[in-house]
Design brief:
It is a single chain. A two-stranded antiparallel ribbon has the order 1-2. The chain contains 19 helices and 2 strands. It starts with a helix and ends in a 5-residue tail after the last helix. The protein is globular, with a radius of gyration of 21 Å. It is 75% helix and 1% strand. It is mostly helical and 420 residues long. About 1% of the residues have low confidence.
Length: 420
């Protein structure tokens, strides 16, 4: 009699082989079509998954799938943070803050009102749908901006927004779910939850990020410089686990670590001991190159697995069932909710001096992906009211924003003269 564990391991290895093979060809196809590879990977996932060829069948709620999604999204977000400049972020911090909090809430309300009318469902479940899909997705946006070089401050604003707004979307979703199931709402509790998630995530990222750069780049104490690639793995996993353990945003923590490691040479600390001697950080070119290539490799693998698996989980039957009202919601979502939220969040930031071509580009850039998919999966597992409807519209938002918006990013940036 065969060992069930060996059978499961063999199936997973076969699935991994299929994903890698199709991932390689997807990369070549995306280069040939001149579109971001996440677009092709998502389509390939639909083709090789249960909706079509059934070569891959890994349940969305399985532990293996959840590990891939959590680690992959975390590492992609870490890579996104490592490519940002603190000098640029300081100039647009107000816009980022507004997009990450009130921007999400504005989008939530507009989409919720449209969903209640088009789907004929009660207002609270409609607002829950709006909360699930309101946050943008760093796992989608980071690879796109890596392949399509766009004006620096626009790129860094959109990526930073996607890193910080998952806390707002998650808290809003579970606050509304509490209202539906228990009929109670506490403004104080919701505010405390947001502070814990956002503030705790930032603090966790700062502590572990500083520890990492001390170990790999301090001019005196960097005894782990040659192991810098593995340190990135350790701190990303540690940050996510610690963040989740204390109720903070693990994704925010890994993003902050990425920013610290990416800008390590700009930090100088004065020690309170030894006459206030300065602590400086520098990593040799050889080790920096190895770390950079390692980060790129892991991020690429993560992207391939995440989006092929995400495509394989698309439920075409549910999408067919709600296709027409879903189209209406997607129209409101993409052409009304996003532009209104961007206008409300960029115009007050007078110091940033946003130009209209930059604002128009941000209207169009708000891809949905891993985080909304994970939240909708949790709602289905918890048997929340109208969870199937929410899951259907969530997958529609993933499909539409990636297939339509992501594939036209370079074209639009060219028309608006934002390409570098």
């Amino acid at each position: 009699m065969e060992n069930p564990g060996i059978i499961d391991a063999t199936r997973f290895l076969l699935m991994a082989l299929i994903v890698l093979v199709f991932g390689v060809f997807s990369s070549k196809i995306s280069a040939w079509l001149k579109v971001p590879d996440v677009v092709v990977l998502l389509i390939v996932g639909i083709l090789v998954g249960p909706p079509a060829l059934h070569l891959i069948d890994l349940p969305a709620e399985s532990a293996v799938n959840q590990i891939i999604l959590i680690f992959g999204a975390s590492y992609i977000l870490f890579e996104g943070g490592s490519g940002l400049s603190l000098k640029v972020i300081k100039k647009v911090w107000l816009t980022i803050s507004l997009l990450a909090i009130p921007g999400v809430l504005i989008s939530l309300v507009i989409v919720g009102l449209a969903a209640a009318w088009l789907l004929g469902i009660p207002m609270l479940p409609a607002l829950l749908l709006g909360a699930v899909i309101a946050s943008t997705d760093p796992a989608t946006l980071v690879p796109i901006f890596k392949q399509v070089k766009i004006r620096e401050r626009v790129t860094q604003t959109v990526i930073s927004e996607s890193a910080f707004n998952d806390a707002t979307g998650s808290i809003a979703a579970f606050t509304i779910l509490g209202l539906i199931t228990m009929g109670s709402f506490s403004a104080e509790k919701s505010l405390f939850s947001f502070i814990l998630m956002a503030g705790g995530g930032i603090l966790t990222g700062i502590v572990l990020g500083l520890l990492a750069i001390f170990l790999i780049a301090h001019t005196r104490y960097k005894f782990l410089t040659e192991h810098a690639p593995f340190i990135t793995l350790i701190v990303v996993i540690s940050a996510y686990l610690l963040g989740e353990k204390i109720g903070a945003s693990g994704f925010m923590a890994v993003f902050v670590i990425g920013i610290l490691i990416g800008n390590l040479e700009s930090f100088v600390f004065k020690s309170v001991f030894g006459g206030g001697k300065a602590h400086e950080f520098k990593i040799e070119q050889e080790h920096h190159g190895k770390m950079h290539h390692f980060i790129e490799l892991i991020s690429t693998l993560s992207r391939v697995f995440i989006f092929i698996l995400l495509g394989s989980h698309v439920n075409l039957d549910l999408i067919k069932q709600y296709f027409l009202p879903g189209l209406g919601i997607m129209f409101v979502f993409m052409f009304i909710a996003r532009p209104v939220s961007v206008l409300c969040c960029t115009l007050p930031d007078v110091k940033a001096k946003w130009k209209w071509n930059e604002i128009l580009f941000m209207f169009w850039t708000r891809e949905t992906g891993v985080i909304p998919a994970a939240i909708s999966g949790l709602l289905v597992g918890a048997k929340a009211p109208y969870a199937d409807v929410i899951a259907s519209i969530t997958f529609m938002s993933i499909l539409f924003t990636i297939l339509i918006q992501a594939s036209t990013t370079k074209w639009l940036a060219g028309k608006l003269k934002l390409l570098e």
